[in-house]
Amino acid sequence: MIRKTLLAALLFSAAFPATAATKVPSLDQAAGRYAISPGSDIAFAVSQVGGGGIKGKFGKFSGTFNLKAGNLAGSIVNFELKPDSVSTGQERIDAFLRSGAVFDTARFETITFRSARVEQTGPDSARITGTMTAKGRSSRESFDVKLTAWNGRSIAFKVSGKVFRSHYAMDVGTPIYSNVVQFDMVIQGQRTR
Hints:
Mean pLDDT is 89; it is low at 1-22. Helix content is 13%, strand content 48%. The chain has helices at residues 2-15, 19-22, 91-98; strands at 32-36, 41-47, 53-58, 61-67, 76-81, 86-87, 111-122, 125-134, 137-150, 154-164, 180-191. Strands 1-4-5-7-8-9-10-11 form an eight-stranded antiparallel β-barrel. A hairpin with a 2-residue loop joins strand 8 and strand 9.
């Protein structure tokens, strides 16, 4: 009986290492320069009156972020996505989103975000405020960020935020479709320095 208990304890400890080893670090500990990885997930949703709505992802994007230890407010985030890479799983909707009524990808190839302020909200969380530019228009936007993984070379964040379509002349279909786009993203990065 003692042997079985000891064996079970050894197997458990091998399968589930100590919590301290898997604890997510603070933003200060993860400081450094990172390039956003292609494995990141850039998802969005626009709700519709009566339920449903549009959900999709963007497949082409790039960016960098520089987390400054001891001075998170001085951190810098730059992000760019290609709206022609939008995918909802429905080609008709994808074509409409790429059209002049929404992204107008024939004239505007990128959507950019440049941080102006990073405010730490917890040891592993922050709010990033900056300028988003889409369809030739710019507006101030904010996103909430939570550090979810870090191993010294790679890092991951959960990022969420709401953006008003009307700020970018993309509010076709309102009020049947919400003016608000909800972004829920998993941003992964690889250390560059």
